Structures are given as structure tokens and as C-alpha cells.
């Protein structure tokens, strides 16, 4: 059974930074592509960033490109989302998701993912 646990969320002022973590347990971490999504109140869940299983490929939503960085440490079974220059519109619950993948591909669609974490709240004050 795969479990994903997010951490690192919190309250931060506009312009600040947070590092979100996504820890995976239960299977071989390096076999999973990971994605970060977010959902703000009253809005649909949206794609934020993704990384391939070996970490060689990444992709970002246009609204976070240049501000957020996704990375992974396969030795620690953890994926990170470094969020910089945060804006009030970044306020949301952030979720990580995992998909079994050995192809070096990242995935943008939430329906592609097999496992989801419970989410971590990020609140950015103006």
C-alpha cells in the first residue's frame, strides 16, 4: 500500500517562501513519477508541477514557472516543492500524487495519478 504524506505548509506573507515535502512509503520510490496539485476554496484542483521517476524531467504550470522548483531525493523517498515569491493567489491546499512510471515521463493530468496525499495548507497573506 502506497502512502503519501505532505508537510511544510503554513502561513506566510506575500513574497515569502515555503518548502513543501512529499514523503512516499510502501513501495520503491524511484518507480513513481510525482506531481503537485493545488485546490483553492471554490475552485477546481489544478496542476502545479511534476517530476519524472528518476528526476530527469520536470514541468511547471505557467503561473508558478520561475517561482517554484520541484526536486526529488530518491534516497530519502521525498519530493520537494520549493515555493518562492509567494502571492496571495497561491493560497490553497497543496497535494502530491504518485504514478507508477519507469519511462522518465512526467504527467500533467490529475487522472493519470494512482495515489494521493491528504494535502498541506498554504496561506499567503497580503
Major β-sheet profile: 7 strands, mixed
Structural class: mainly beta
Question: Mean pLDDT score, rounded?
Answer: 95
Q: State the helix count.
A: 0
Q: What is the helix fraction of residues, given as a range?
A: under 10%
Large-scale geometry? globular
Write down the secondary-structure element order.
EEEEEEEEEEE
User: What ranges have pLDDT less than 50 throughout 5 or more consecutive residues?
Assistant: none
How far the N terminus sits from the C terminus, by CA atoms, comes to 40 Å
Q: Please state the oligomeric state of the protein chains shown.
A: single chain
Radius of gyration: 13 Å
Number of strands: 11
Strand content: over 45%
Observed structural traits:
126 residues, 4-stranded antiparallel beta sheet, 50% strand, globular, mainly beta
Amino acid at each position: 500500500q502506497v502512502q503519501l504524506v505532505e508537510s511544510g505548509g503554513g502561513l506566510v506573507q506575500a513574497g515569502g517562501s515555503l518548502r513543501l515535502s512529499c514523503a512516499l512509503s510502501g513501495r520503491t520510490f524511484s518507480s513513481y513519477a510525482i506531481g503537485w496539485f493545488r485546490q483553492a476554496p471554490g475552485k477546481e484542483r489544478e496542476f502545479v508541477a511534476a517530476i519524472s521517476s528518476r528526476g530527469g524531467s520536470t514541468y511547471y504550470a505557467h503561473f508558478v514557472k520561475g517561482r517554484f522548483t520541484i526536486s526529488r531525493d530518491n534516497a530519502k523517498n521525498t519530493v520537494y516543492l520549493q515555493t518562492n515569491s509567494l502571492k496571495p493567489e497561491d493560497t490553497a491546499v497543496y497535494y502530491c500524487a504518485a504514478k507508477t512510471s519507469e519511462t522518465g515521463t512526467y504527467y500533467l493530468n490529475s487522472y493519470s495519478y494512482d495515489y494521493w496525499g491528504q494535502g498541506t495548507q498554504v496561506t499567503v497573506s497580503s
